[in-house]
Design goal:
By secondary structure, the protein is mainly beta. The protein folds into three domains: about 20-150, Sandwich (Jelly Rolls); about 150-295, Galactose-binding domain-like (Jelly Rolls, Sandwich), CATH 2.60.120; about 300-489, no CATH class. It contains four helices and 25 strands. The protein has helices at about 1-20, 165-170, 215-220, 295-315, and strands at about 25-30, 50, 60-75, 85-90, 95-100, 105-120, 130-135, 145, 150, 155-160, 180-185, 190-210, 225-230, 235-240, 250-270, 280-285, 290-295, 325-330, 360-365, 370-380, 385-405, 410-420, 455-465, 465-470, 485-489. The strands form three sheets. Strands 9, 10, 11, 12, 13, 14, 15, 16 and 17 form a nine-stranded mixed beta sheet that branches. A hairpin with a 4-residue loop joins strand 20 (about 370-380) and strand 21. The longest helix has 20 residues, at about 1-20. It is globular and about 75 Å long. Mean pLDDT is about 85; it is low at about 10-20 and about 425-450. InterPro entries: NADase_transloc (IPR057561). This is NAD glycohydrolase translocation F5/8 type C domain-containing protein. It comes from Leptospira noumeaensis.
């Protein structure tokens, strides 16, 4: 009896602590379009995290391991009050909300409570983002206890890699970005990943996002992994089978691995509908409930540095991590521009549009991490028939710098594109949601006839005075413009 009396206060205290600490919430994937001092997992651990100085429309993407009830998101700044609202997207475009600029401007309320798989925060025109923490609250308005993978040092190599390397590097397996991923050149079977961890690690389970999970169309058209052969230190060897599904899957190893060097060789594949190579989106290693991932910050910083260098060389540095908005033009105002970059052309080559729109409105954002967002609308009037037709374009993905010259940069933009008629517009909450979770956590049977289209286009961005011109080479007919006259948002 005395023993029970002694335990009772302890049990009550333990119960109260558990109740007050909140539910557990695990995030295997957290990323951002701009990073300065570390990976954005920092904000879940209460560590200070910064985006690149001056970057606008910075986005933080959070992908939960399981769906969770969400009533509020709180964002704590370490650089003063936010000047612009913060937009929040749940499950890509299912739910949209934002902070209240007139009040604290640091909380997003969801009423009614939503079931979230992913949450994206877009910081709009806020600059010099510095965060102390981001917290998520359950249906009872209690904050979750958030958990993230341990980030470790080491190296990873692949036996072959598709081009461009930044988009398809093997390090993309740990960058938490669906728009990136590892891709082989044309092969599949025999492709090998070699991991060299900075210290010995124990692995009993592997979490894999199979295929190219940028969209269901990307996934079905590219090959996926069916089985891996794992080999490592001390003669370790094991074979694992991988399901042909979207979203993440956890695979328990037949025998736990412990060591520093590990290889994963593709033994079998699920062939893609049109592409011969394989793609793998993300990868995590785990043991006893804990997960770890490789540190991708050096790779992210290197990619950003390369893009800054290219845009600086073209005197277009200021457009990176900013937004450009404007409309279609058929001619450029004549006259000499005195503040052209040295060696730049004064003339802008305006491509002829045989069927110009009566109205158009376009926005494009190019980011230092190599991604882009594009949104546009065009309208045409048939006076004979008394009809007006409208189209809306919504694209996101990556860009590749092809060539630079003073005042001009040539780009290949590629990813996926939605084109909708005015009777079928989707509401994206007024904004840019590149990589916001999409259907990848939910779709189990990818449909190749989905309205989303894999696309690429070749464009040229040119500066002339305070104006920017985006010229479409029209090697494809994906985007409905010839020459756009743009200004910084």
């Amino acid at each position: 009896m005395k023993f029970r009396s002694y335990l009772l206060p302890f049990l009550v205290l333990t119960s109260l602590l558990v109740m007050n600490c909140g539910k557990k919430l695990h995030f295997s994937m957290v990323t951002s379009t701009s990073m300065e001092n570390g990976l954005p997992f920092f904000v879940l651990d209460g560590k200070e995290w910064k985006a690149e100085p001056g970057a606008e429309f910075v986005k933080l993407h959070f992908y939960a391991d399981n769906a969770f009830s969400l009533s509020k998101v709180s964002i704590e700044s370490c650089s003063g009050q936010f000047k612009d609202r913060i937009a929040a997207y749940v499950n890509f475009d299912e739910v949209y909300a934002s902070t209240d600029v007139q009040n604290s401007n640091s909380e997003v309320i969801f009423d009614p409570v939503v079931q979230a798989r992913s949450v994206t925060l877009n910081f709009q025109r806020n600059q010099n983002i510095c965060l102390k923490s981001v917290k998520f609250y359950d249906e009872k308005k209690k904050s979750y206890r958030t958990y993230a993978p341990e980030i470790i040092s080491g190296s990873v190599t692949a036996s072959e890699t598709a081009s461009p390397e930044p988009t398809y590097s093997v390090m993309n397996l740990f960058d938490s970005k669906y728009e990136n991923g590892y891709a082989s050149v044309k092969g599949g079977v025999g492709v090998t990943f070699n991991f060299d961890f900075a210290e010995r690690k124990k692995i009993s389970v592997i979490k894999i996002w199979n295929g190219y999970q940028r969209s269901d169309v990307h996934c079905i058209k590219n090959g996926r992994v069916k089985s891996f052969l794992l080999t490592g230190d001390d003669g370790y060897s094991a074979k694992i089978n991988v399901e042909d599904t979207m979203g993440s899957q956890e695979i328990t190893l037949p025998t736990p691995y412990k060591g520093q060097k590990l290889s994963m060789k593709v033994e079998e594949i699920y062939p893609g509908l049109t592409e011969k190579g394989i793609v793998l989106s993300e990868l995590r290693f785990g043991h006893d409930g804990d997960w770890f991932a490789m540190d991708t910050l050096p790779k992210s910083k290197a990619t950003a540095s390369q893009n800054f260098d290219a845009f600086t060389k073209a005197a277009l540095r200021k457009v990176l991590n900013r937004g450009l908005t404007g409309r279609e033009v058929s001619e450029v105002a004549e006259g000499e521009v005195t503040d052209l970059p040295v060696g730049a052309d004064n003339e802008v080559s305006v491509e002829e549009n045989l069927d110009p729109p009566t109205a158009s409105d376009w926005t494009i954002r190019l980011r230092s991490d190599g991604t882009f967002f594009l949104e546009g609308s065009t309208a045409r009037t048939n006076y004979d028939a008394g009809e007006e037709s409208s189209n809306r374009f919504y694209g996101m993905g990556n860009y590749e710098v092809k060539e630079t010259s003073p005042g001009k940069i040539h780009l290949r933009i590629f990813g996926f594109l939605r084109k909708q008629t005015f009777t079928n517009f989707l509401d994206y909450g007024e904004g840019d949601c590149n990589g916001c979770g999409r259907d990848c956590n939910q779709v189990k049977n990818p449909d190749p006839n989905n309205t989303e289209k894999i696309f690429q286009e070749f464009v040229t961005l040119q500066v002339r005075g305070k104006q920017y011109y985006l010229t479409n080479s029209k090697k494809t007919e994906n985007l409905d413009f010839s020459t756009l006259e743009l200004s910084l948002e």
